[in-house]
Amino acid sequence: QLLLCIFTFAMVLVPEAKDQSKAAKGRRRGLARPPTATPALAWALDDPYTTMADYEHSIQDMVHQLRNSSEPGDTTCQVNLRLWRSNRRSLSPWAYSINHDATRIPADIPEARCLCTGCINPFTMQEDRTMASIPIYSRLPVRRLLCQVPGEAGQKPSGKKKCHKKYQMVMETIAVGCTCIF
């Protein structure tokens, strides 16, 4: 689901960037035709937090689904073709665990963990260790808590250390699935 969210986001932004690039080329050539459609994310320019809030909410939904899943929490290296989720149908199956960090928003992010050392041979449906299962990583935007203690920035230190909460947008590397390599 996380990959689907990232893929959907990319599918919306890439065509928009191409349309803007074509419009810029047209202006350089002297063509003055208006764009045929408004950009899909034009509303996001006025309120950049709406997009990030939606993104964080979708991650919270995934964590909630993971915590309340009725599917077995099997951690064995096997493919289950009866399950609809791709992580259990893959030749390099993985399970999700929750990556928790209290100094980050969102604090909980689903993270993939490979269930096999090798990969499942599609003919025998047994683990084949001539290949290796490795995680696939993606960089996700998160807000990281930066704590400034009074006195660090030239202020007078008091007896108690209070933290002035400030968040900064950073990219964090998270495992989103697994794949086979030779």
TrEMBL record:
Alphabetized UniProt keyword annotations: Cytokine, Secreted, Signal
The keyword Ubl conjugation is annotated on this UniProt entry: no
N-terminal signal peptide: 1-17
Chief localisation class: secreted
GO BP annotation list: inflammatory response
InterPro entries attached to this UniProt entry: Cystine-knot_cytokine, IL-17_chr, IL-17_fam
Subcellular location: Secreted
A single GO cellular-component term on record: extracellular space
Family: Belongs to the IL-17 family.
Record-given protein name: Interleukin-17B
